[in-house]
Amino acid sequence: MLPLITGLKDTPIPTILVLAGIVFILLAIAGSFKPFEIPPLKSLRERLLAGIGGTVFLIAGLLIYLLPISPLGITQPSPGTPTATPTPTSTPSSLSSLTPAPTSTAIRDLDDNTNWAIFNFSGKPKVMLANVSDPSNDGSALKVSFSSQQSYSGVLVFQNLPDAPKATTFELDVSFYFTDAKPIQALAFTINKLVDHQRWEWALQWQNISGATPSWRAFDRGTQTWQETGVTQNLSPNMWHTFQMKGDLVNGQAHYISFSCDGSSNKLGQTFGPATELGDRLSVGVELDSDQQKDPYVLYVDGVDFIWS
User: What percent of the chain has pLDDT over 90?
Assistant: First the structure.
């Protein structure tokens, strides 16, 4: 019997029964129902029968619709009957190394394509982009020519990538080369993830202020401020430098894992909140800042690889 009632519950029959019940009850009260051109009921007996039939239809339709019937093949436990809870089994340590790592996605040599864009965020710098073969590590590098007639100008050369809403770990690898460090106020390398109106950013900046030892700073996108990492490093001109940055998302925060430059590896650990911004995408970029003297300089970027999972 239960399978039959269950089958009726998932059909229009309960609705039809309820509507029929309402029509018969109205017919019993009014004696006629013009929308359906039903002949008027003349005797009290006819009205009584219509009322009883309407009530039966109405109750039957409501019962079929409202009864808490379990899906087929599943038995509801009776009150007081304990339900067995599966016990999680631990993975033997000898098999833990066989667990596959999360699938990662990598885009190699982003410097070789022409999808770079320019955003001037300070002053009025003039920036020119070109692909060149010399200097380069693999035969092709991105040349960024930077100049400005205003002190402390800044520009971001970036590339937008498809969104990856489930991505939680990120790695950026870059090789870079400059011919003169003196006019460089700062260089920064950035990763951004935007999804659901939130923007997380991992950015490390090499700050090169005259009279001070150059140092690395981490960016807090939530407060839009640079935070000291305590790592200092001199970078020489006319040679290739290698940079790697790793970060992930932890409890909704951008977590800096580590970075290395020219083989000097540094663990970090800072976590910063996101900012509010529209758009769903990933992006990577290189930031260039000029000093007070407004001297131009050129930065070469090669081997730009971005990996996420």
Answer: 63
Residues 104/108/110/115 CA torsion (nearest 10 deg)? -70
Contacts of 161 (CB under 8 A, 6+ apart): 107, 281, 282, 283, 284, 306
Both 46 and 128 in one domain: the answer is no
Q: What is the DSSP code (8-state) at residue 87?
A: P
DSSP-derived 3-state class of residue 162:
coil
Distance CA 109, CA 141 (A): 9
pLDDT tens for residues 77-103?
333 333 333 334 333 333 333 444 568
Q: Give the pLDDT score at 253.
A: 98
- Domain range holding 12? 2-66
Provide the token pair at 106: 């990598």
Nearest alpha carbon to residue 112 among 82, 87, 139, 88 = 139
Q: Are residues 117 and 57 both part of a single domain?
A: no
**How many domains is the chain partitioned into structurally?**
2
Model pLDDT for residues 215-260, shown as the tens digit of each residue: 999 999 999 999 999 999 999 999 999 999 999 999 999 999 999 9
Claim to verify: residue 186 and residue 250 sit in the same structural domain: yes
32 and 150 in a single domain? The answer is no
Whether 124 and 153 have beta carbons less than 8 Å apart is answered as yes
The whole-number pLDDT of residue 41 equals 65
pLDDT in the model for residue 3 = 42
Is residue 292 within 8 A of residue 161, CB to CB? The reply is: no
Ordered alpha helix ranges (H), the chain: 2-9, 13-30, 44-66
Q: Is 124 inside any structural domain?
A: yes
